Amino acid sequence: MSAFKNTLLCLSLLMAYSANTFSATPKTVAEGINVVGSQKITFNNGTISMAGNLYLPPDYDATKKYPAIVVAHPWGGVKEQTSGLYAQQLARKGFITLAYDASHYGESGGVPRDLEDPSDRVQDIRSAVGYLASLPQVDANRIGAIGVCAGGGYTLNEAQTDLRVKAVAGVVAYDIGEATRTGIEGMPVTAEDQHKLLTSVDEQLNKEAAGAPVLVQPLLPPLSSINASSPSFVREATNYYLTPRGAHPNAHNRYVVTSPGLHLAYYPLAHMDLIAPRPVLLISGSRAETLKFSEAAYAQAKQPKEIMVIPGASHFDLYDKPQYVTPAVNKLAEFFGKNL
């Protein structure tokens, strides 16, 4: 990248930060509350154009190099939701951060839309790390990675074989493979359930091979169907994704129905030991139905490793509720400040 291009990039980032700082303050995710302080950027993941939001520290100095962090979003999410919130808050702690739309989602490319392919999600993170490393204001030897929910599982998996990631953290990490195989607390999956799933996936794949379109269905049920008997994880998910609390027009609440066929044989935590001697941080909530995944990742990892369980927090509390997100961000800032 030429010096002239470097200067233009730095100026554009500063202008974008100033414009966002002084414009009308958004109040919801859909209005862009988690985008304040960022600039839209693009980078390539092979032939796919990826869309991201890059955040700079408030006291950004174009003459300095900064530690940087990639933040990966949950299954079905987009960069403007919880990953954007964590990126925004960590930028305020002095890091350059990047929240991006996974391939097949949001403003990023990739077809079919709404496909949840673990290999693609891991490659997205790899490409995002490369993008940060290419920036003149980033110290390429001080890059970390965070993932929220399924993004946490993918991020922990990616770091196992990417030495450019010097420290890695998962926030309410969700092992999409194990969740598909055995379920989560309150929503168990049996061997019979697995067989039915694979049978339906196979039937759809045969239809598509014969010319039928890719089948996409709602990821979460409609709010009107939720009641006291609904699993707490589903109740809380709909309360975040399908209400003004977390809804965003680019998050379509859809998934390609054959995606779970790719999840059953995915074991993102199987080689956590490979991350050492780079440090690992797991953050979860004491009421999170997904806590077992953070505990499993911690058990599989070698030192240095930490686990933080926030009392009273559910899985989705750690998406956006200040009383839980604030201690999580403070811990992440301490962790990355020490290790990057």
Note the topology:
Layout: H1 3-22, E1 38-45, E2 48-55, E3 66-72, H2 82-91, E4 96-100, H3 118-134, E5 138-148, H4 150-159, E6 165-171, H5 176-182, E7 183-184, E8 187-188, H6 191-209, E9 216-218, H7 232-241, E10 254-256, H8 260-263, E11 280-285, H9 291-300, E12 305-310, H10 317-320, H11 322-339
Parallel strand pairs: 3-4, 3-5, 5-6, 6-11, 11-12
Antiparallel strand pairs: 1-2, 2-4, 7-8, 9-10
Helix pairs in contact: 3-4
SS field, number of helical segments: 11
- Helix residue percentage: 25-40%
Order of helices and strands: HEEEHEHEHEHEEHEHEHEHEHH
Largest sheet: 8 strands, mixed
Radius of gyration: 19 Å
Silhouette: globular
Q: Point out poorly predicted stretches.
A: 1-12, 14-23
Termini separation comes to 24 Å
Mean pLDDT level: 94
- What structural category arises from helix and sheet content? alpha/beta
Q: Tell me the number of strands.
A: 12
User: Taking strands numbered 1, 2, ... along the chain, how are they ordered across the largest sheet?
Assistant: 1-2-4-3-5-6-11-12
Proportion of beta-strand residues: 15-25%
